[in-house]
């Protein structure tokens, strides 16, 4: 890492006792992974550039979002923490709105699926699958896909992915549930959508 860059990391717990709770948590992970922001502190004008990365784990009925940020600029951990809290609140609101528009695409027994690594040119960034389902050696979050044990076909097929902004695979109660949701909205502020104030 460059000498002017540093990292911050958090584990954020989400309730995952219901199908919708786990679905929302997975959509939040998708929204935050790869997000980049330039932020400015209102108090002193400090500017930082943040790149977020996300992974996940499941612990019983608790979903753990493993969130990290690569930060360019002065070491201001409190500023980064405050911005991250604000950003997550917005992401949760957006995820809840997207989930309200979900379309059920069916389900399969988890025992009837196998998860395999795929080459980079076959990755689908619009297919969201929990990291804990990845096979050994696969890149997460996009370097693997689910296939039918019987028939060896990709499930969902590319055609289903093409019809939705995102397709989310939610493992719950022994089954893989598929949901289609709209693509996340683009920032409305065309002048500078990534410059956000940090209220301290």
CATH class of the largest domain: Alpha Beta
* Alpha-beta classification: alpha+beta
Strand/helix succession = EHEEEHEEEEHEEE
CATH architecture of the largest domain: 2-Layer Sandwich
> What form results from the Cα inertia axes?
elongated
Q: Termini separation (Å)?
A: 28 Å
Helical element count?
3
Q: In percent, how much strand structure appears in the residues?
A: 35-45%
- Summarize the biggest pleated sheet: 5 strands, mixed
CATH topology heading of the largest domain: Alpha-Beta Plaits
Secondary structure: number of strands: 11
List the topology elements.
Blueprint (H helix, E strand, L loop, with lengths): L4 E11 L3 H14 L3 E6 L5 E13 L2 E11 L4 H24 L2 E7 L3 E5 L9 E2 L15 E5 L9 H5 L3 E7 L2 E7 L13 E4 L2
Describe this structure in words.
By secondary structure, the chain is α+β, with helices and mostly antiparallel strands. It has 2 domains: 97 residues, 2-Layer Sandwich (Alpha-Beta Plaits); 79 residues, no CATH class. α1 packs across α2. It starts with a strand and ends with a strand.
In short:
This protein is of the alpha+beta class. It contains three helices and eleven strands.
């Amino acid at each position: 890492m460059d000498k002017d860059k540093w990292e911050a990391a958090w584990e954020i717990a989400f309730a995952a006792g219901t199908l919708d709770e786990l679905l929302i948590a997975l959509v939040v992970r998708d929204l935050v992974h790869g997000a980049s922001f330039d932020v400015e502190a209102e108090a002193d004008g400090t500017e930082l550039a943040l790149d977020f990365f996300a992974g996940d784990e499941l612990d019983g009925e608790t979903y753990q979002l493993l969130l990290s940020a690569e930060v360019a600029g002065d070491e201001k951990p409190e500023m980064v923490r405050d911005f991250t809290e604000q950003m997550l609140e917005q992401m949760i609101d957006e995820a809840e709105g997207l989930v309200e528009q979900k379309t059920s695409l069916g389900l399969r027994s988890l025992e009837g699926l196998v998860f395999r690594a795929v080459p980079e040119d076959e990755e689908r960034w619009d297919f969201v699958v929990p990291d804990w389902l990845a096979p050994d050696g696969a890149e997460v979050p996009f370097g693997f896909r689910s296939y039918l044990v019987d028939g060896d076909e990709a499930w969902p097929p590319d055609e289903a992915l093409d019809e939705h902004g995102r397709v989310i695979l939610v493992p719950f109660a022994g089954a893989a549930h598929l949901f289609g949701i709209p693509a996340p909205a683009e920032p409305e502020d065309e002048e500078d959508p990534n410059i956000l104030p940090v209220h301290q």
